[in-house]
Amino acid sequence: IPGWMRKKQCWDIYSAITDIYKLRPDRIRDWVSHPKANGYQALHLTVMGPDGKWIEIQIRSRRMDDIAEKGFAAHWKYKENRIEEDNELDKWLKTIQEVLANPNPNAIDFLDTVKMNLFASEIFVFTPKGEIKTLPLGATALDFAYNIHTRIGDHCLGAKVNHTLVPLSQKLKSGDQVEILTSQSQQPQPEWLNYVTTAKARTKIEAAIRRQRRRISERGQKMLEEFVGEEQLDNTLYNKTLNYYKVEKREDLHYGLGNGDLKLPDSRDKLLKQRETVEPKQDNLFVRYMKQAMSGFKKAPEESRSDIAVASPAKTGEIDKKAIYKLHEVSFKKNFIV
Length: 338
Known about the structure:
This protein has helices spanning 3-20, 62-70, 87-100, 107-119, 141-148, 150-154, 199-228, 235-245, 250-259, 269-272, 285-311; strands at 22-23, 29-30, 43-48, 54-59, 122-126, 132-136, 156-161, 164-166, 178-182.
């Protein structure tokens, strides 16, 4: 049966029920025309029963019922006769693919994507042209921008919700009409990660920030190479430069120079005359233990002889109660470090 025919059957049943029983208008849920992100389709309504109690009725076709009970797996049962309802499955799979295609995929983000699409409550918002977009509950205007297109999200400058200017962190509600304002000069900012709730938006922002940082670091490295001129930029010179700026990593040095946070000195002699600081190499715990143990074995004979010599006056059996005695341990030899 074609998809439109199944929808028509659901609405015909709805019409027959409402002709008999009184409908509660505020409890109608039309997921037949606009399926959930997990593919769920049904027509929910609440009517007053014969005994004066409210009764919830769910109307769905056999195919809709299979998907409701078995989830996305039921889609493949009907894959041969492809219809428009399968678009929700394709959208979900595309979102998963985008997260996995990220250069540095995060397992938690991946799980959040699956969880949000399958279990989260949803809202329906509209574009200025009236197109419906499905988002998880709690989604913001910035989530909406990335849901439309990555480039729109990257250059998002602000948003209008119901013709009112709002910040990017504005949470959306079902029925909102959202318009995204963009600027080519706008770039994703690290604080944007605090504004989004969807894994797709978070993944795109993190990827854009990494690209920005990489470009800035390359610019900073080129500035440093031009500054030192003919001098070879080897490990020694790098260590002197890191010590001059009190920076630990080369990546942070390049980024600081490229971003303008670090300024190159007036003369390169200030870098060349800088002392290279090399921290003394420290042995690990096992090496220190072995060294101390070996030194304990070497000193043991001398300590034993001196201990016995000092203790020899006690052989007389006479103890002077007024005298001061120095005690030595004979059998204990410390050969480890705590």
